[in-house]
Amino acid sequence: MGAKRRTRAKPKAKRRGDRVPLVPIAVGVAVLLLWWFVQAYPVLSAGIAGAGLAVGVAVLVLRLRRRRAEVVLQAELDRAVESTDGMSGADFEQWTARLLRRSGCVDVEVVGGSGDAGADVVATAPDGGRVVVQCKRYSPTNKVGSEAVQRFSGTARYYHRADHPLIVTTSTFTGPARSVAAQVGITLVDRQGLAAWARSGVAPILVDSA
Predict the structure, then answer these.
(1) 198-208 burial code (b ≥16 CB/10 A, e <16)
(2) pLDDT band at 10 (very low <50, low <70, confident <90, very high)
(3) Residues 68, 69, 70, CA angle at the centre, nearest 5°?
(4) 104 within a domain of the structure (yes/no)
(5) I want to staple 203 with a disulfide (CB 3.0 to 4.6 A). Which of 5, 88, 103, 131 is the partner?
(6) Which of 48-57, 130-139, 151-160 has the lowest mean pLDDT?
(7) pTM tops 0.85
(8) 92 and 188: one domain?
């Protein structure tokens, strides 16, 4: 018979309780070193702490200034209809929502998307009426036709219960579209009207109801 093959004993896995708690030890050592340094060099420690505080305050001030500059820049861009050039449809909806807020509307919400039934932005006007906006980010040569106005008229008041239904576009409207809108009571805002609205902050619905 051949010699029996010896089997190596598997090393025992260390139990969780046998592990050395390195993190608490490291923290404790760091605290002790810091305490010793403060006791040994009080003036230097105070200087380092003051410098750290000054750096922290400076960073905070710079961030606040940068944020304020971004807000000011965004506000300036929102006053120019040219800033909508090249926007996506979703960006244009957000731009329109900011314009409504600047005009005194509250409860402004972007709701555009699948199944929106023609509403992209909804809000409450200063007079308490419900504003429902359909946004069309079109190129200048792509006019909004009467079919779009007819579809929106079918949902704006009866489905969305709009008191102030609007269609806003970066382009313009065809003659038949304006005729349909006048008959069904929908406010149309083309690029020229949008530019005036953005500059003044006065919504067409406020002008119409004045």
Answers:
(1) beeeebbbbee
(2) low
(3) 90
(4) yes
(5) 103
(6) 48-57
(7) no
(8) yes
